[in-house]
Amino acid sequence: MATPTKKPGAATGKRSRLYWAVPAVLVALVLVVLAARLVVGLPAVASFVTDYPGQSALPAGAPVGFPAWLAWQHFLNAFFLLLIIRTGWQVRTTTRPSGHWTRNNKGLIRTRNAPTKISLELWFHLTLDALWILNGLVFAVLLFATGQWMRIVPTSWDVIPNALSAALQYASLDWPTEDGWINYNALQLLAYFVTVFLAAPLAFITGLRMSSAWPKKAAGLNKAYPIEWARAVHFPVMIYFVAFIVVHVFLVLTTGALRNLNHMYGVRDDDGWFGFWVFLASVAVMAAAWFLARPVFLRPIASLMGKVSR
To answer: What is the pLDDT of residues 9-44, one digit of tens each?
Structure first.
């Protein structure tokens, strides 16, 4: 039987689109900067930026600085999200799974119906999801118990014009003053709020709807919450997380890297190198996890919770 081959024109077309996409994005960014600088130079807009410098006042009693638990939560969220995005893409694109997994229907979790066989990639993705959600619940409890919620939840309507002002300043390359140890600017605040309280729950409820744990015979529930809607939302939410991570890392490294890394990893407000070395160690851990997330290492772990088969 002849082996099917890809048409050379298709591959060439993809490469051609990629070659055109990169300069097109660069040109678009230059045009955005030029337009923003032109707009900010207008008297009315300059007055708007003066009235709304980009930062909303925090409520009285808002905490200053970052506690140690927040540094650990930040690392764990980054760790799980990195692997969740990777495995989510694998689940979406893998045509021949590296193995299959069937849950042991005994112990604390038992179901009347037989467990569903799923791919090893999907098992790893769902396992990471469960750990990420558990970590998120701990994060939410500590966030509200310590008052840190006031730093990422809008408490005044002036956050909207301040966020618009911050966006104009970023776009014009005249970036707003950064002092994340005390208060985020309004655009950062809204980004963190959307990520924590909108994107993360959406990822959870759409992923749950698509998982084998969802009751398939609940006709009324399935009609009210169709799986097609979950699939249409779940992937764009993943794209949002990727975009958020790229922009977040870029701004951390370009708006005072050492100070920002000390905030997030060193729990201190200075320009020393401690946070940088902790950050470097965390990157090494994530790189090792990326390397070890292979079938040869996953099968023994998966077999502890179920049956692994080809």
So the answer is: 555 655 666 677 778 878 888 888 888 889 888 899
Instruction: Say if CB 310 and CB 100 are below 8 A apart.
Output: yes
Counting Cβ atoms within 10 Å, is residue 87 exposed (0-12), middle (13-18) or buried (19+)?
buried
Query: What is the per-residue DSSP string for 150-169?
Result: GGTS--STTHHHHHHHHHHH
As a whole number of Å, the CA-based R_g of the chain is 23
CA–CA distance, 77 with 274 (Å, rounded to integer) = 21
Query: Measured between alpha carbons, how far is residue 122 from residues 92, 210, 211, 217, 226 in Å?
Result: 9, 11, 9, 22, 21
**DSSP H or E stretch at residue 96:** none
Range 219-223 average pLDDT: 86
Q: Which two tokens stand for residue 240?
A: 């949002």
**The model's pTM:** 0.86
264 secondary structure, DSSP code: I
Sign, CA torsion 286/73/63/68: negative
- Per the DSSP assignment, residues forming a β-bridge with 179 are 183
The burial of 274, by beta-carbon neighbours within 10 Å (0-12 exposed, 13-18 middle, 19 or more buried), is given as middle
| Alpha-carbon distances, residue 38 vs 43, 155, 168, 171, 206 (angstroms) | 11, 32, 10, 11, 42
**Is 72 strand, coil or helix?**
helix
Give the β-pairing of 306-309 and 118-119.
unpaired
Contact 176, 55 (CB under 8 A): yes
Rounded to 5°, angle at Cα 141 from 152 and 285? 80
